[in-house]
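Encode chain A's predicted structure.
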Amino acid sequence: MFNQYRKSISIWLIIALLALCFSIPAFTQDTTKVDVTESSNGANYQIGIVGSIPMASFDEPVDFGYGLGGAIWFPMSETVSLGAGGAFENYSTSDENTSFWTIPLSANVKWVAFDRIYLIGGALVGFDHFSAKNEEAGLDSSDTSTSWDVNIGAGFDITDKLFAQVEYRGLIDGINTEEDKDQEPRTIRITAGLKF
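Encoded structure for chain A:
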């Protein structure tokens, strides 16, 4: 019962965040025409290399984990972007090893706090293929799933072309739509990228 309520609340939270993403530009629109290619914190296409550090899964601390992937973000305005990417992650808890490939699609809102420092927040859906092994329990399985999540973080424009971001992903435990379980760990993600 709790998992059903948690999934429903999580999906409505994601819908609300997406609605916020698309409503902010209407309230912040400037009638002045801007050449986004010249804006330090403006609406540039971005590509990045993403490294991740898994922190916990199934409410268990991760003993060891790593992840690596890439992403590209498409600007909808100076504050809203849509992203897509791909990544591989592997992590171990006290009794299980899990690895998965994921293709996340995201929508992010960006708030410029200072000249080159900004805050970001958003929602995402991930298409995952994972495998799990537990030698003591004789478990060796793999499956595909779809998960929902939200993330928050901060970024820094190193130059007009280079940027770095740190995000925490796992605010709603990566709700898995097929098993009511969190196959994806809560992670800290570090991105280094290029704007063009």
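The domain at 2-28+44-195 is CATH 2.40.160.20 (Porin).
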